[in-house]
């Protein structure tokens, strides 16, 4: 079933945490809430889980309102499963007992089956402290899914494991969740994680959703320079449109270097990839601050007017004592109204 947030707003005293949030996490898909700490993503998840009381707006499951300003039932009264960053397993219980905790007595024999599904077959007699971090997270996932919740809510579930294990675990988790047909809402601050696991991503900033879409949408058609930088690895450069060029801290960039039409404003944010910039030796150009060979390319950090910095990746030789003009390749720069 789809999970729908309708005009959600929330405050902690005088601090506004969420402002008019509306979007739908589609049935059977994994939706990520992505943003920096303090953007409101965990607050939104807490409202869906029943850990927080809805102050404004409503939350619907399969079209039926499950929480609004008049009623906000607790987690145990909602058809949702929860997975937290640390797994939150009961330390005095075996894995079988942990997974079977939310099941009726007649169904607790299913616990071993769920442990097998998450790769923990034959480990039901172990206690949480006898497991690695990745195994604990698998057990927490099995416990959350065993009762058959209609929605699974996950708050940074892979943050406590090392980066190599994290990559494998989230890919395994995606396959399992997709096979189960679960509707999932997952909180993360890591764009790579969101791209790796999500079907759709809600990018949050200062209590609002700045863009909601598929990973393909966010990568290829960002609606702001900040979103484009997050998903493409590009850098954001300030510019001022003047006639047939844009003035930047690194020189004049012709409109011919722009991808598509620019917004009809003077102040711009320009999005450009480091490997779509060329360097031309020029004594009046930008000073080289660092040269870092990286195998087939060299990463060069340059300083422009006012101390602004830009990174260029090039296969051409670069001299640390030389100054360079930075020239974007044709059609390589995307322009946005400055935020």
Would you give an account of this structure?
- By secondary structure, the chain is α+β, with helices and mostly antiparallel strands.
- It folds into two domains: 3-79 and 149-229, P-loop containing nucleotide triphosphate hydrolases (Rossmann fold, 3-Layer(aba) Sandwich), CATH 3.40.50.300; 234-337, no CATH class.
- The chain has eight helices and 19 strands.
- The protein has helices spanning 41-49, 95-100, 111-117, 133-145, 163-180, 191-197, 215-220, 225-232; strands at 3-12, 15-25, 30-34, 56-61, 64-68, 80-83, 151-155, 183-188, 200-205, 208-213, 235-242, 245-248, 251-254, 267-272, 277-294, 297-303, 309-314, 323-328, 334-337.
- The chain has a six-stranded mixed beta sheet with strand order 6-7-8-3-9-10, with helices on both faces. Strands 13-12-11-14-19 form a five-stranded antiparallel beta sheet, covered by helices on one side.
- The chain is elongated, with a radius of gyration of 24 Å.
- The two termini are 36 Å apart.
- The model has no long low-confidence stretch (mean pLDDT 90).
